[in-house]
């Protein structure tokens, strides 16, 4: 571990605190003074550090002098403990600093179980800036909102409160009481699983819990309220990481509609090593169902008053102290007054609805310091009462309103009334209902205080001593006053068409308002040229209209002649095939008898190359007879040893093929041969002939059905049609595939959901072929999410299609963000979503867009992804042509299809309206546009094509170690299931069983329940679909599987305990699995590869998510191969090689002389890749950085693949793997999506936060591709069993809408509408995006909210000068659109340019050409750009950890002052505009839900109290609070607070579904909930300074120009010089 400068860590921590205190409002502390204005840090600094000094012996020298000798050992122990905590803190800071910001909830969230540390949740909500001490209900609202964000996203989690955590709060009784109330509220009022039985994270029970559940991660805070608690949390963190469970920081979490993001620290080997090495080497008056509020209040007041009375009676010094000191203590009568007012405030809580309480007036007072001891005592009593209520079953109370025990501000308000206003003559009626509840509560206090006279309930206040001290200023400063809500009127028909229905209800400014008259006219933006260089946007070839393409697709005359020749020469072909078989049959038959596997391979190769069915039939008969004789010989010689079932499998396979494919060619003698084989195998029920001889010793000892399911599952015949489809020449399509062909032929759209490797992609190429045949100008667009898939699709297109094009034309074009080729002049464009969106939204490419006849969306489930999902949505709603949407992982395809159908109806209505209104005009246009034949008339139907069956079975295996050898155990899918999961989610739709797994399931069920009534129905030999069948098909086996699943569900309904026993005691225990590789996994990786080779499971892809581990694994295998070669290579190896080469040469020469192709199959079996082809592939990467690595590994059949590789390197590795040269491929998720990489096996080599069920499904789909393998194998190597279970049992994700709009997108839509060549088409596209988002589908209120957001965006664009009043783009619109992907940095960059800040900065050292800029200018430019683009925030704890020796600075410096001021001005305008927007959309909130807690749904609405003058006085509603959450109002939040972007997410009305991230706000300084600052990573500036990629990886934890029209402008030149400097550093050799 690097040496650490600990002193600097301390100073940094102090500076962080200072920053936080400057930027955040003060937090009301829970210390002894109860002073509302004191900062939170007062809790944890002075007192806690004083306690630590005592506990850990800070003044060690003084202690050594003063203590006796026998105490020195104790001091030494305390010193060591202190040192341990110090080292632990440094180690934790080091680990957490490297945290990655990730999406915590993946698409399969219901499968990813995780933990939340309850105390971390508690202190995170306590630190919330909007929370005010004592406002319990608001606190519980914040907690439930935090958890509700997870629940909305269907997350599965458990909250854990450790018993030892309670000890951290004993000095803070209010926190102690609040924590106890929180636990009980979550237990009684919510469905959240709460665990409080664990004493600490070191308890054995906790260890067992972690082992059994293996959570996805633990959410925990890295900072406690006290230093003691921070140390406690550090121990929890290191223990969690030691247990190979990832940690997510509670601070720094952000959320949007679909995702929750946080900082995740992955468990590493070093965590376990540190943990093991350093850490641990060593009563009757209460009525039933009474309200919890009145119960706790009455008991607390009674107990505390009796205790206080006894204390005063027993201590005469108290009276003396009262007389002799200025600071007087509280008298008993004053304490009674305080309790009466508390009871009255609780009565208010019971009667008043939240809507009325939210109107509470704001007073700036806090409790007198002398009340502190009594208030602390009150909270301690409250804590013990809550604990007693929980532990005592006799107290039956209603826990519903536990979150609302007290309201501190309401208590103060009542005290202020009686203390100030009532004394001056104001006498208000309390009201009958409130008074009744109050008297009832006070009478309970008196009855519980028998023997003590505390007086009656009236008057409430009997003493005159002041309880409150008034503060001079408000506790919260507002940056903005609520502005005048007036919109600037914009004159645009497009705006009127979209949002005209809500514009009537919005306020507008008058035309002579200064805001409008002060607007500066700017030059209109012309999108026909690049904004930075005056170059034309299109530099592609245009398709010449006067040239016609010559097709080479379809049936030419030559094709027809060939067909006729084939028919005439059919008899000759039959004869040749017969001669070829006659020459080979004897050798094949002998080979089968000697070695069944090799002989069958040769036979099957012949069958694949044979063109005669009759000859194939004869070959199968010979193969069957040879297998039969081999089985007879084997059974005679096997004696007592187990029989080799593989021979019987091959024999039965031949019987299957002959029976199913060639039954029409069979004669009676052939049927007798089949019957004889079946008889000898022991399948008497299938044999049609009798045999008198004793053949029992040849039997397989099981029935025919069981044998076929157990041993021949992957050979069972699939449901394949035998009738060819004239549209397809290469294979016979299945029924569902023919439906896809019908979709394309009818020009319809379709959502296609089918398993990986099922063959759904073929329809894409059929669609391309159809377009190429029928038109010379029509266009197909193929949209793919990854470059790897694009490369493969392009290669396939070029290999399939050939068409003569004119000069400048092309069949296929490519458009990605870093590469474009033949975009405008191709007929098939393969692209990524972002680039297609650019083309569709371009105003001047509409003619090109109208050429599109089909769009194919591959992997359309990316519609629900984290990044770029909204772009997929935009494309789906903008395209006017039919589409194909393909995916394997969508659980709600019906909803998706319904939404897309509504979009297609929109376009149908648009086309109909346009045709009816301007039919003559459209006729003229159609003559100029590409012609569409009548048969190609557009259809607006959207079909849903579902296919659930995977062609190949997937079997799973778990790897473990036993006696220094690998044990590979089959993992039955049922081992992943539980009764609870099936009851809640059902059996996952894609959790399939192989035929042998179905038999295993049946046997297990019989063993668990021998008396099972339906046992005979499911006996394989008696099952209706199997009985007396010679050949069982895959469909029959699937029926068996489905009925077994139904029977399991029936078992659950009838006897749940039996099924629980079945899952827990049989399936799991029988497997006896344990993945015990752990820390030695990487060392044994090469041996594991050898193991897979032994069992014939190569080629395989080994998936990991660590790039460096990917390469290391590949080189581990290479090193192991070289070692074994050097170890076992004989001394005469060279001579043997020469001898083999000569023998091979002689064989080839003899083959040439042999009969036509005689035994050429032998060479073909061993031949993989020619030397010339291999050399060509290596030649392509001769200039790439990793060429040496790739070549060295590939020559040994090894490869690696990840996204950081160069394009040509990845392409070379993919080609080598597909052609069979590479057998071992280590890869990241770069090979997960769709790309065709056929392999036998997929191996998951390590656990990771990115190994979620979506990635698992995509990656595992690579195994056993159709046409390559009959079965695929999945291996879990070093993956914990609980993780394996969750991966298997999770359901596929549901697609939900994204927030569809951004200000940059709206600017792009305005540009499209105003400058397009075809205005109607442009407006229709823009409206389709605005009106048909998935998020607002069937949600009218959501649609209205989006309309208001649209208006807000237009106002922003107008005020910033991007639009004029006619909504015409002006000024720097082009620059903002060009950088749309980087919103809001694009708008901030424009503001810098407008203010001339860059021109002020970029002053050259000399004015004469060439202009050169100083290094300081370059560094400052990098600093500014690093604050705008490519931002990476570090965890807030990063500044605590500093390396003494580091090339990088790591933490980015603040912006120069003038740039920071410009951002502050920009942000102030954004806050002002966004706050106004929130005020407007607040009317769309569902207020019935706003008065409910988000998680428990406890309702605090009700009828307002009208009969109380005091209520009307205390809650006048004079402050504006209509647009903020009523729960937040309890902490004195008002509408003005909406103009502070930092607190918006916590205080806004939650049902309007808007987040602060929807505002283009650029954070100048970002803070966590606890006020700690999150700094930016300085990787860009550090790299510019030292130019070392290695330093970025080590120190920064980073894995791997244009500004204005004048090209000679100083700013452009400065950025150009900066670009050149980066290129030199980036591409230099290290």
Written description of the protein model:
The chain has 1630 residues and is α/β, with parallel strands linked by helices. Among the domains are: 26-279, 3-Layer(aba) Sandwich (Rossmann fold), CATH 3.40.50; 290-470, no CATH class; 537-568 and 721-920 and 933-950, P-loop containing nucleotide triphosphate hydrolases (Rossmann fold, 3-Layer(aba) Sandwich), CATH 3.40.50.300; 572-701, no CATH class; 977-1071, no CATH class; 1078-1125 and 1151-1289, 3-Layer(aba) Sandwich (Rossmann fold). The protein is built from 63 helices and 31 strands. Strands 1, 2, 3, 4, 5, 6, 7 and 8 form an 8-stranded mixed β-sheet that branches. It has an 8-stranded mixed β-sheet with strand order 18-17-19-15-20-21-14-22, sandwiched between helices. The longest helix has 26 residues, at 72-97. The radius of gyration is 38 Å and the shape is globular. The two termini are 24 Å apart.
Amino- and carboxy-terminal Cα gap: 24 Å
Q: Indicate the proportion of strand residues.
A: 5-15%
DSSP helical segment count: 63
- Give me the count of strands: 31
Classify the secondary structure makeup into a structural class: alpha/beta
Overall geometry comes to globular
Poorly predicted tracts of residues: 1-74, 279-289, 526-534, 536-555, 688-694, 922-935, 1068-1074, 1151-1169, 1601-1610
Percentage of residues assigned to helices? 40-55%
**CATH C-level of the domain at 26-279:** Alpha Beta
- What integer value in Å does the Rg equal? 38 Å
CATH architecture of the domain at 26-279: 3-Layer(aba) Sandwich
Task: Let me know the largest β-sheet.
Answer: 8 strands, mixed
Instruction: Give the CATH topology of the domain at 26-279.
Output: Rossmann fold
Mean pLDDT: 78
Region (Disordered): 1-42
GO cellular component, one term: cytoplasm
Domain Helicase C-terminal: 1139-1307
Keywords: ATP-binding, Helicase, Hydrolase, Nucleotide-binding
